[in-house]
Amino acid sequence: DAMVIQNPRYQVTQFGKPVTLSCSQTLNHNVMYWYQQKSSQAPKLLFHYYDKDFNNEADTPDNFQSRRPNTSFCFLDIRSPGLGDAAMYLCATSFATSSYEQYFGPGTRLTVT
Amino acid sequence: GQNIDQPTEMTATEGAIVQINCTYQTSGFNGLFWYQQHAGEAPTFLSYNVLDGLEEKGRFSSFLSRSKGYSYLLLKELQMKDSASYLCAVREYGGATNKLIFGTGTLLAVQP
Fold first, then answer.
1. Which residues of A touch B44 (CB under 8 A)?
2. Which pLDDT score is estimated for B69?
3. Which residues on chain B place their C-beta less than 8 Å from a C-beta of chain A?
4. How far apart are CA B102 and CA B108, in angstroms?
5. Which helix (H) or strand (E) holds B5?
6. Can you list the positions of beta strands (E) in B1-112?
7. How many CB pairs under 8 A join A and B?
8. Which of A45, A97, A99 sits opposite B48 (nearest CB)?
9. A91-103: per-residue pLDDT in tens?
């Protein structure tokens, strides 16, 4: 089945130690998004790629970076995680010109110790 | 900017009907989505409204009034598995791509 896959599902990292989260999709969608969702809060868009074009949200900290080496894969890099970065990180995809529904992956829960 | 309001929590009884309201303020409205999110899981798509009126899909219906900045999600014949958070999300007009602005969600507890 076509889907959005995130690895790992659970990630523990140490304060200040760089970490990379992975997202892949078999839907062949043009757009890939990264959201941060803290406990009992709404998902917050960090950035998205439309093909190779990177679109950063104005309030996304510089500590968060992203890479999209090809259509299928997108990575979220946290250069120096702080305790406040502990959250669920959701990857989503969509076509740019379809019904605009976003398909979410299962998420990666990040713990910072 | 955008502002989305929905109740924090609701409780309902199995077999009953529940309506979850969402009000929004936006400068560039281009559609409203409802997502269901079980604890610790990713949101799953429930419905999409861009024109005024009611969209029905099985036990779930969603209504939109653009002039009032108002939507609701109606869940009929409630089941225990419907216990989840329901997220209202507004699509911000942005050309070829879309950005979703999510509300904080309504946590629905279905009781026997």
1. 104
2. 96
3. 4, 31, 33, 40-45, 48, 87, 91, 96-105
4. 17
5. strand B3-5
6. 3-5, 9-13, 18-25, 29-37, 44-49, 53-57, 60-65, 70-75, 84-92, 99-102, 106-111
7. 55
8. A99
9. 999 887 445 688 9
